[in-house]
Amino acid sequence: MADSVKSPETGTGVSEGRLASLHRYWQAVNYLGAAQLYLKENPLLKEPLRPEHIKPRLLGHWGTQPGLNFIYAHLNRLIQDTEASILLVVGPGHGAPAILANLYLEGSLAHHYEGLGLDMNGLKTLMRQFSWPEGAPSHIFPGTPGTIQEGGELGYCLSHAFGAVLDNPDLISVCIVGDGEAETGPLATSWHSNNYLDPVGSGAVLPILHLNGYKIGGPTIMGRMSDDELQRLFSGLGYRARMVAGDDPPRMHRLMWEAADWAYGGIRDIQKSARAGKNSRRPAWPLIILRTPKGWTGPEDIDGRRIEGNFPSHQLPVTDPANNPEHLKQLQEWLRGYHPESLFDEAGRPLPETIAVCPQGGLRLGMNAHANGGELLIPLRLPPYEKYALKVTTPGKERAKATTELAKFLRDVFRENEQARNFRFFCPDEITSNRMQPIFEATSRAFVLPVIDTDEHLAPEGRVMEILSEHTCEGWLEGYLLTGRHGIFACYEAFIPIVDSMLNQYAKWLKVSHEIPWRAPLASLNYLLTSHVWRQDHNGYSHQVPSFIDNVVNKKGSVSRIYLPPDANCLLAVADRCLKSRDYVNLIIASKNAEPQWLDIESARRHCDQGVSVWEWAGYGSESADVILACAGDIPTEETLAAATLLRKEFPELNFRVVNVVDLFSIMSHRDHPHGLDDENFVEIFTEDRPVIFAFHGYPHVIHELIHHRPNPARFHVHGYMEEGYTTTPFDMLVLNNMSRYQLAIAAAMRVKRLNSLAGDMIDIFKDRLRAHKRYIRENNQDLPEVVNWSWSRPG
After folding, report:
1. Which residues are 240's β-sheet partners?
2. Angle at the Cα of 470 (from 526 to 511), degrees rounded to 5?
3. What is the pLDDT, as a whole number, of residue 10?
4. Is the confidence at residue 636, as pLDDT, over 60?
5. Are β-strands 204-211 and 171-178 bridged in parallel, bridged antiparallel, or unpaired?
6. What are phi and psi of 660, to 5 degrees?
7. What is the pLDDT of residue 625?
8. How far, in Å, CA of 500 to CA of 699, rounded?
9. 3-class state of residue 524 by DSSP
């Protein structure tokens, strides 16, 4: 047989000598991956294996490792031949020992961490630190060089990979999808991401579907599908799939070499054609389907049970080598089967031929600059948000749609950053519903499928990413941010909890990243929640869910921020702050409907800088207040100010102070959150002993938790969403949840002891209006005129 057969895709040959090098390298990383699971001493088996060489606690996974190592080895070869910039996204995150083994041999670990050099001490450290306290965890995490994918919850690797290549025209993201992960809903949807990928302005994703046939305890769906079924499935999804299947290493190395060259050539052909203006429809991107046995090259049988090619290889094939002599013998036979003595020298250094396939410098997978996106981050060019301010001369006189005003600002953010192409807007089919159409004056929705005459705002180069999948939107945005860009995720408040667990994972990523010196800060993850709970009267109970606040509240204070702007000018100030921030999860909640506008732009700026402030213009006798009327959220603010006017009219003897909270964490103690007020400032605003009637956007318990360490927290009486709802009128939503202006006024009157004797008649008046409200909406299907036509004015 000839030494090489030329590949038309890369112009290189399938070299027998380099195939041998690939196999040596694969043997080495398989050995290192397996050894990390078991060994704390004797890293190259220089002496017979003894129980004291075994870790006291065995943690980790073997089954996926050989396949990951196989792919990594062949990507190394492809990079050597093409010098392509390849970002590896690893779905099977519990294959961390495999990835660490590769990072070790290529030198990326030593670049980032001391003690991991290519010598005997480095080998000992590599093996001992895995699944060891303060060492490397059992899954990929932010401390793993070259990665943007947390190896915990499954389902998001492919959307991360697509997000990473948006606006990165020279980047190829190779995404390894395990057949277990392929069964998750988010992953199944993310195959459709190819319908949004512009081959002109963005890079490419090469999915490698790794089918080893099993999950933890049973078979996988795709693992049991025939080759023909898989080909037809992925053809329908818009991919060209190539199968690489078998268990004979020499044959598999050749097949994978050819498949990698085929995929790379296909990607470059698509890009070349599109960038020359020749493509008129969505291309069929290459996809590799790799079928290998689970636990490939591991023990065939243990204790009479089949291991290789079966689900018991998922975690630890040899379960008790420290206490079972037969297990110890089998572990030694397994590890020696890789012939480490032929792969490393006496000093523990890998032989040159062992690492001959490793790329050098920044071409190494562990050194790809996009995986540490903060190093590539270019700050957004932001127009002055004051330019978009609404003129407010009298508080509450004018109404406006805050999201529409914000959209005008974001439209120009797109324009200001058109050349940098580093900003995108992600939304599950809700731009129009959320009244943010001005964005379409600057860009369109991304879409590469055919367009018909009646379509609006669709273009391959569009920078608005709309797919009716919250998971995919979140995954795209995370991939975009992690590779050094900026974005916003806008969503209905009721449906953002769909990504609760994704937020959990991303917040953990940020928290850990803060502890890793070489991880550079990223642009913040910005959520904009609209169509919120208090304006979902028309869609009904299912759309009334303010629980996402609770999730963000539970995150570390170093990561989480929550903003409840009361009007459009405050929303502009908050958005500007969030787009400039780094390494936070910013949650912004704002109505899309026409609501009263309270503050001029300078007052809004000061208010947002402070996070919470007394609205002197809205209170009466504020210095000697009998009660504090506090609010957080646009609708709670309106109801609080309406309650203030009712109290002043019906109860002129009452003194009260109005406090508005825009930064929710400002009411926490500064000891619990960096945005929290110190004790002195908190008392200055809320006093030390006056009752506080607090109208809150979300669940009341959130406020009680935040003020737990404040003076006399029991004096806070919080009104918020109480899981009462229906298809009803907007004001009735407030009444159902005890947060209407009448109920807030009643609560205030009941808690001012010096005026208790005068409160009864006034409370009766307000209760009568509540009864009138119920009669009116039943008869007229709309709210009382006194509610619909209300506007704030300061009574004499």
Report:
1. 286
2. 45
3. 53
4. yes
5. parallel
6. -115, 135
7. 93
8. 17
9. coil
